[in-house]
Amino acid sequence: MNIGIFPCQGRCNVSMMTKTVAEFFVDDEIIRVLPHVGLPLDNESGIHEKYIALNGCPAKCASKEFEIARIKPHEEIVMTKDFDPKNNEKYAELLNIDEEVSLVQEVIERLLGSTVV
Q1: What is the pLDDT of residues 47-73, one digit of tens each?
Q2: Residue in 106, 99, 5, 100 with CA at minimum distance from that of residue 50
Q3: CA atoms within 13 Å, Cβ hemisphere of 77
Q4: Is residue 103 helix, strand or coil?
Q5: Taking the model in full, what pTM does it have?
Q6: CA dihedral 16, 18, 20, 26 (to 10 degrees)
């Protein structure tokens, strides 16, 4: 079982936050940060993959990309719902990102725990 994370592709601060959070999982062996949902999502090894739409705000741009590709993500996260970053503020520095990373880690663990062997 692998996990594919697709961060929001926008340019505002909360979108940039999703990309920063996703980067924390780049070196994980079972997690893949997806560059684009329109690309074939099946990996070469044929391992089943569950998908997380990592949205910055309620516009849910990452989730909409899955819709366009006709794929339903297994989980959707909206950062502005769970935390209080102000949308469209200048993205200069993201402090205290640990909480956001922990939230994504919890979702990953839940998805991995729901795997039927």
Answers
A1: 578 999 999 888 999 999 999 888 899
A2: 5
A3: 27
A4: helix
A5: 0.81
A6: -140
